[in-house]
Design brief:
about 260 residues; alpha+beta; 5-stranded mixed β-sheet; 11 helices
Length: about 260
């Protein structure tokens, strides 16, 4: 029996199509992540992890963030001064847009963090679509196509804010493989955020967009990413020990505050 088959069997009735296990705490919440997205509430993690990153968890920042990597809150480069506003701390997230745990993490942790730390922390997102999620690559291409029109943050938020509409099967908790439905919804998000739809379609199918996604995935593998979401704070992997998203939220804020105080 393959690893994916063993994992799917363990999950049972939720049928999230889970991925390979990892030391990252998010992997332990996969079983309940879909329920978190659908009905909310407290999430219990399946196990404890060491919250202090070891030296081996430190990664070259140049691998984690490329000069043209997508950010959620950094202003475009000022052409007059050829500079950007420098924030003290960088939080990098490797994500899969159809990953139930990523969506639950967004709902319970990162969305509010982005608001509360927008003036002090640069939020960088990297693509790490997993083959087990049928619409993950399509969603990543839509986000990258939006980025080419300067609307990456808007598409990022649209994909997660409407997660249940495109990523899950109607009336069920398992992930969807309906590309036609997802494509129509992505078009509607593109129109809502003011994209040129013809260019959006062209960019989604372009080699340029696919190469960006593959580069992100390659960088993630180099950094030791094996599951999503995986986060790094100033080059150090965030590996919390909490048993709920509230715990993890507190731990991540503590790490960010510590880095900001340096």
């Amino acid at each position: 029996m393959s690893q994916q088959e063993r994992t799917s069997k363990k999950i049972g009735s939720l049928k999230t199509g889970r991925w390979r296990p990892s030391a990252n705490v998010v992997m332990t919440v996969a079983v309940l992540a879909v329920a978190a997205v659908i009905i909310g509430g407290a999430i219990l993690f399946g196990g404890k992890h060491n919250s202090s990153a070891s030296h081996s968890d430190s990664v070259d920042p140049a691998i984690l963030r490329r000069p043209d990597s997508n950010t959620l809150n950094e202003k475009p480069r000022d052409e007059a001064s050829n500079t950007t506003a420098v924030k003290k701390v960088t939080l990098v997230e490797f994500l899969d847009f159809q990953c139930p745990a990523c969506a639950a993490y967004y709902d319970n942790v990162t969305r509010k963090l982005e608001q509360d730390y927008s003036d002090r922390v640069t939020f960088v997102t990297r693509n790490f679509p997993l083959d087990v999620h049928p619409l993950a690559m399509l969603a990543a291409r839509s986000a990258e196509a939006a980025a080419l029109q300067g609307k990456y943050p808007q598409m990022y938020h649209a994909l997660y804010n409407n997660y249940r509409s495109w990523a899950l099967n109607s009336g069920a908790g398992n992930v969807s493989s309906d590309q036609q439905r997802a494509s129509k919804l992505f078009d509607s998000y593109a129109q809502q955020i003011g994209l040129n739809l013809e260019r959006f379609h062209r960019d989604m199918s372009s080699t340029q967009v696919q190469q960006r996604i593959e580069r992100d995935r390659a960088d993630g593998k180099t950094a030791g990413v094996a599951s999503t979401p995986t986060l790094f704070v100033d080059g150090t992997k965030f590996d919390p020990s909490g048993n709920s998203f509230a715990d993890v939220n507190r731990e991540l804020r503590k790490v960010l505050d510590k880095e900001l105080a340096k």
